[in-house]
């Protein structure tokens, strides 16, 4: 006679084991992305990157994407930074992605960690961008359009209005980070955030 038949409401050993292991697995998966890098820092990944956990599993750290990047925007995560060590990332302060039309970095990836989006940059987002007008010199009476001049997507993503202020157009912005570096204010009037996922 089974133990749980004698004491209804008390799970048998198998059910208890499944529940315990299931909860532990759920907790591990919930924490996986936050602990991939030291401090849980999210990095801006190259165009076409899989979601972080899948990217880390698929990336062989072969550096082919880094070698294929024309503006040398891709860097290697330092060796002391957890599971992400050796993987490619973009630091827009050093060199932003310039949104190459053919995404040579993604084309160079032999494992699928980076894949070419079906429509290229159309509708693709590398990161999200926020404009902080309080930091922008144009709101303090200084003429500037360094961000708009530098943007590879031009007026589809970033324009200057009649008053001389930058206007971010989220639907056309690919999140490459060129404007972050081009901005003359420190900190930049633009904040780039890696996408969730």
CATH top level label of the domain at 127-194? Alpha Beta
Structural class: alpha+beta
CATH architecture classification name of the domain at 127-194: 2-Layer Sandwich
- Strand percentage lies at 5-15%
Spans of at least 5 consecutive residues with low confidence = 33-39
Largest sheet: 2 strands, antiparallel
The value of Rg in angstroms is 23 Å
The CATH topology name of the domain at 127-194 reads Alpha-Beta Plaits
Distance between the termini: 48 Å
- Residues in helix, %: 25-40%
What general outline do the C-alpha atoms trace? globular
List the helices and strands and how they pair.
Elements: H1 3-6, H2 13-32, H3 52-58, H4 64-68, E1 74-76, E2 88-90, H5 104-108, E3 127-131, H6 146-150, E4 158-160, E5 166-168, H7 178-182, E6 190-194
Antiparallel strand pairs: 1-2, 3-6, 4-5
Q: Which terms summarize this structure?
A:
197 residues; alpha+beta; Alpha-Beta Plaits; two-stranded antiparallel ribbon; 11% strand
Give a written overview of the molecule:
This protein has 197 residues and is α+β, with helices and mostly antiparallel strands. Among the domains are: 42-108, no CATH class; 127-194, 2-Layer Sandwich (Alpha-Beta Plaits). The chain contains seven helices and six strands, in the order H-H-H-H-E-E-H-E-H-E-E-H-E. The chain has helices at residues 3-6, 13-32, 52-58, 64-68, 104-108, 146-150, 178-182; strands at residues 74-76, 88-90, 127-131, 158-160, 166-168, 190-194. It has a two-stranded antiparallel sheet. A two-stranded antiparallel sheet has the order 3-6. Strand 4 (158-160) and strand 5 (166-168) form a beta hairpin. The longest helix has 20 residues, at 13-32. 30% of the residues are buried. Residues 33-39 have low confidence and may be disordered.
